């Protein structure tokens, strides 16, 4: 199975050979530090006096705080653990962005009506709470400028000078071509089991049984043997009660669905509603992401430009590297938009399809999107998700390319752990962009090593 083909990533932007290597040999090899809307980098292990804000007069119903994660938690699991520790509903929590579990991560969160002192006293292995303050406003999804990454690429089997030379050449090539492809990265779809988009597409088609059985029973080779055996048995027998006995405790989400299906064997919609709302939305978002990746890949295949616009395209006007608005390109503004792109103040935008997406007949994207939707067997209207309207997705736009900011080779040295060479990269990406989509250009190796 070619994982990148499975998720719609079908090309590299650069021609320079990669350096190979492996990511995430140690947890500390991949550090993600959130950048707040004000531009502050939430540095790992560095609490800033007053950085968390001040106690507002009259207080506020929300506690805003920073959490450092250096255990095996993703954002959803962090919320679950904190909610259980504090004895409150996980629905009280909110966050600016979702971070990968296979990383050291620093991010802002908020919780409704929890005393700040209780939060400060929380002690959970792998989590550190800092800079707690009251606020009248919660942290909202998307309320960040971006993320800074510090990444070690280990086990590079090249001489020191050759490894550095190649990485520098790839960086220069990306700059000359307008940036890296703004694909939705591997973790959007699942690294061990890349099927969130498969589940999402079946939900859109109304095939809830198929979606549930894929999520519960589809076997992937990188998973543990106990999980693979449990899934295979469920696929063969359809016995939810026996599956609940066999599924490992760590598969909490699957077990939550199985618990429901034991009592209501045909209520697959109800089973999905046993999952956190953020997770079920991820299925639909992953379907949108897959369609976007295929559209971007198809535009490249058709020879249409990625680093400029044609009449009928849409463009993102950028503010501090983040889209502030999207405009339609026509004969009256095409040259102005191209000039803005050349200055790094605009970028080609492609549709992220949803029920509210309208693509004019003269848009170069229309034929591309129609071809992709036909291939995956969904329509824009299906994104209303009538049986689960809480998952409805309006759609929007996303830039085709993105320019990593402050991208540098911080260090090239002998890799004392895995042998060979270690390359350390430091860079910042706007919210919604994936570090692995830059690192795949640098490494050009088996995606399992990302």
Mean pLDDT: 94
Beta-strand content estimate? 15-25%
CATH class of the largest domain: Alpha Beta
**Class based on secondary structure composition and strand pairing:** alpha+beta
The total strand number stands at 14
End-to-end CA span:
16 Å
Task: Tell me, briefly, the overall form.
Answer: globular
Provide an overview of this structure:
By secondary structure, the protein is of the alpha+beta class. 33% of the residues lie in helices and 21% in strands. The protein has 14 helices and 14 strands. Strand 3 and strand 4 (104-112) form a beta hairpin. The protein is globular and about 60 Å long. The two termini are 16 Å apart. The model is unreliable at 51-58 (pLDDT under 50).
């Amino acid at each position: 199975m070619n994982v990148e083909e499975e998720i719609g990533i079908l090309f590299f932007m650069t021609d320079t050979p990669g350096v190979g290597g492996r990511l995430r040999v140690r947890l500390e090899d991949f550090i993600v530090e959130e950048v707040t809307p004000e531009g502050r980098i939430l540095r790992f292990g560095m609490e800033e006096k007053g950085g968390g804000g001040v106690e507002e007069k009259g207080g506020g119903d929300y506690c805003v705080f920073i959490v450092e994660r250096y255990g095996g938690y993703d954002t959803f699991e962090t919320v679950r653990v904190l909610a259980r520790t504090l004895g409150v509903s996980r629905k009280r929590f909110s966050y600016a962005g979702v971070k990968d579990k296979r990383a050291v991560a620093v991010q802002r969160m908020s919780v409704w009506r929890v005393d700040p002192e209780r939060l400060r006293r929380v002690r959970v292995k792998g989590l550190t709470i800092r800079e707690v303050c009251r606020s009248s406003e919660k942290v909202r999804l998307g309320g960040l400028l971006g993320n800074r990454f510090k990444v070690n690429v280990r086990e590079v089997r090249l001489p020191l000078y050759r490894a550095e030379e190649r990485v520098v050449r790839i960086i220069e090539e990306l700059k000359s071509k307008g940036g890296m492809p703004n694909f939705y990265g591997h973790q959007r779809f699942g690294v061990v089991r890349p099927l969130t988009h498969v589940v999402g597409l079946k939900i859109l088609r109304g095939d809830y049984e198929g979606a549930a059985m894929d999520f519960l029973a589809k076997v992937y080779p990188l998973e543990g043997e106990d999980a693979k055996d449990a899934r295979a048995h469920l696929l063969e027998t359809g016995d939810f009660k026996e599956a609940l006995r066999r599924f490992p405790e760590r598969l909490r989400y699957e077990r939550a669905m199985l618990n429901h299906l034991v009592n209501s064997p045909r209520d697959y919609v109800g089973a999905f509603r046993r999952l956190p709302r953020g997770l079920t939305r991820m299925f639909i978002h992953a379907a949108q992401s897959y369609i976007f990746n295929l559209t971007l890949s198809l535009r490249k295949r058709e020879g249409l430009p990625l680093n400029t616009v044609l009449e009928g395209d849409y463009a993102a006007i950028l503010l501090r590297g983040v889209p502030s608005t999207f405009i339609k390109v026509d004969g009256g503004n095409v040259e102005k938009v191209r000039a803005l792109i050349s200055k790094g103040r605009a970028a080609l935008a492609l549709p992220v399809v949803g029920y509210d997406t309208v693509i004019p007949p003269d848009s170069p994207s229309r034929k591309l999107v129609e071809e992709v939707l036909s291939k995956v067997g969904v329509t824009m209207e299906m994104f209303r998700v009538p049986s689960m309207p809480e998952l409805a997705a309006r759609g929007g736009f996303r830039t085709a390319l993105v320019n990593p900011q402050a991208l540098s080779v911080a260090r090239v040295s002998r890799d004392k752990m895995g042998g060979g060479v270690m390359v350390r990269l430091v860079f910042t990406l706007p919210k919604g962009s994936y570090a692995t989509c830059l690192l795949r250009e640098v490494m050009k190796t088996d995606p399992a090593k990302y």
